[in-house]
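Please check this today:
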Amino acid sequence: MFKVLTCLVVEHDLKLVVLAALICFLSSYGAVTLLQRGRASAGRARAIWAVAAGIASGFGIWATHFIAMLAYDPGVVLGYQIDLTALSLAVAVVLTTMALLIATYAQGAVSWIVGGIVLGFGVACMHFLGMAALDVPGRIRWDWTLVVASIVAGSLFDIGALRTIAFVGRPLKAKVLATLFMTLGIVALHFTAMGAVTIEADFLLAPPQGMIQPHFLAFVIAGTAFFLLTTVLLAAGFAHHAELSAAASEREFARFVRSVKDYAIYMLDVKGNVASWNAGAEANKGYTADEIIGLNFACFYSPEDQRVGLPQRALDEACANGKFECEGWRYRKDGTRFWAHVVLDPFLHDDGTHAGFIKIVKDITKQRADADHIAEVSKNLDIALENMSQGICLFDSGDRLLLSNRRCREIFGFTETLAGKGLTFHQILDEVFARTYSDPAIARAKSDELYQKHRVDMVGKGGGDIVEKLPNGRSILTKHRTLADGGWVSTYEDITERLDSEEQISFLARHDSLTGLPNRLQFSSYLEEELGAAAWFSRKVAVIGLDLNKFKEVNDLHGHAAGDFVLVTIAQRMKSLLQEGEFVARFGGDEFAAVKRFEELSELNDFVRRIEKSLHEEMRFGDFELKSGGSMGVAIYPQDAETAETLINNADLAMYRAKAALNQTVCFYEVSMDEAARQRRSLANDLWDAIEKRQLALHYQVQKSVMSGDVIGYEVLLRWNHPERGMVPPNEFIPLAEECGAILPIGEWVLREACREAAGWQSAHKIAVNLSPVQLANGDIVSLVEAVLSETGLDPKRLELEITESTIIDDKERALLTLRQIKELGVTIAIDDFGTGYSSLETLRAFPFDKIKLDKSFMWEVEASPQAKAIVRAILALGQSLSVPVLAEGVETQTQLDILQAEGCDEAQGYLLGRPAPISSLVSGKSKVAAA
């Protein structure tokens, strides 16, 4: 050591020594700075920084050596060989660069031990090569102990420098310490090695030629030092600027991370404990930094997730895969939960060891709810789309099918959807028709035709609606609607049933639903056309009105099914016999009408005979033989009328004339029929005013006991004294009143007037008032009877209502219910005209009538006809067996009365016992009633 110090103090210029140390320090500082940048970088930049550090360090070591050599004064003239001097520089640069590359890329102790040894070896090689380049007049002797000591000392200091860079956490401290260690290593090696040198001068030797002179070497060293200083300063500047930028960036990033509130960003250590906490984490999870730092992040999981180890599994997966990402429920400090998107990334120390995790958490509860809502809406839309009654297709602007539903596939017979396969509308049409037509040419032609119609003519012009009939017979309503982007939506609805229904409705609107014949509307339309043609071509047209005979009896006796059977059978027969220019229709009920275009009357007569024959042919319904027949009226254009309405009316008039005739089924219209119809209409109009004008009056016909001859009551009979026609017979105006509806107010007047008059009698004789079928079927007859009895004060037992069986046969159940309600008032009910019409025993069984009135037709024949007498006897026996009194009507002779007495009849009325008369006549003269 003393020798080294002596060499340093005695044999060296201390000013230059200080300069050499300064150069060494600057070069070491530059190398350390560049090395730190290299270790902090990655990829190609890392290698560049390491090589730059090696070059700077190599030049610095070389410059330090030769400046120190300039300071060395052994007492002899020194020179330097060019080649070895240059080689020493190259060796210094190469070996130093290798050492620093090892320190940059190697991991663990290898980086600083091997790197330090290589660096020390490089400095030693440079030094001793530089010494070998020294030419002196004499010989150099080495102290090998100091040589070895110099190499060891330099290597140890270099190892310390590299280790400081690797392990000292603070960059500035590491930089200063590493620079000092590296400087000491170079200086210690140089001056220790110089202490090992002894120069034995030989003055006889001539000075070497071609050597580098010290002044030239000084120039070279000055340039090298300037270059080195510039390089170091630039490197240090860049490094410092980079450090400042990195620090500023880190500060800005840290400030950004701390200020972010939408994301929870925090760090975990290797065990999962929270190491940092930002504002977003506090806002999202409710913990402050003081509360959460140091706690394990498992506290954000539910107890169940913690039990199954989800937190640790997340850390393990992040380490294994370099990243962990998931979504799930996470819990806040207050126990509430939110749906989180979690990203967990591991990060490493500079030496590559695991340092911890960076965790980013985003509260996406609303987004998830929105996504769930969208998914639900999409699901519902898909369900709605798949369950639509219409087929739907969505095409883009390139005619490609994007979407279709199940109904569309059903309509066109596809087993799977064609949407999303890139098929165009034309290609789909090609496929549809290829399955329908075996001939490709026909299929292609059909496809092109439909494409032209739908895509070009309709969609290309803004859309539209069209009905297409498929080869399977189904009718499809297609609607095309264009979109703003050039695409279009098409809907397909199978309207086969709707069209069939519309056709059926249209048919039913002009045809009878039961028989299938044209109805009145179609008949009128056809007749108008025929009359127009007849006027143009001077032809004749006949209208035949037709009404079935005894049709009501068929319905009543055999039921409505039998009536329908008769109507359908006759309609089919008439329809089958039609020829050119002939037409038949059903107006309703048992009323039909026909049209015949003809030129000769024989043609019309032939048509009428054919219809008449079809009406009279027998029909079998079950076990019954049915025979209807009918009445026909004929009106001819133009002789009977020139308009369709008048022609139909005149045919009806003729038909009613035929129906009224006993020996005629076909009647041609005559002008007199129209006059009779007008008179009938006039009479009906007068009938409506008869009550107000006091033209109606009540007559009474006495009813007596057959056995005792006592008066038991009176039948109320209506009389009409017309101001112009005089007394109008009841059998003429009563049916007319029922037909026009006037029977309702007239019947109410009769009932009220009869009860009022009877209530004023001193006797308690009964009055019998006839009820019309119209009265029983229309209005509330029960309330009317109750109201009249209440108003007049008549005892209900004194009122007897007479009805015929035909009155109740149409709606038997309703009629019998009404009669029961009347009977509950105390009023008695008599069945009138028994023995004619239906005379159904079922009617007598269904309702307990209080009296049976034997029709007067039997009394007219009872004297001469044994059959009539037998019927009378049977009816009387029926009444006795049912305990129902029987009253015989139409008793006009004493013989008839004697027969009734002999057969045990209870009551009787007729001209023999008393003619109908006003009550005022009955209570005076010899017609006076003792009790009245």
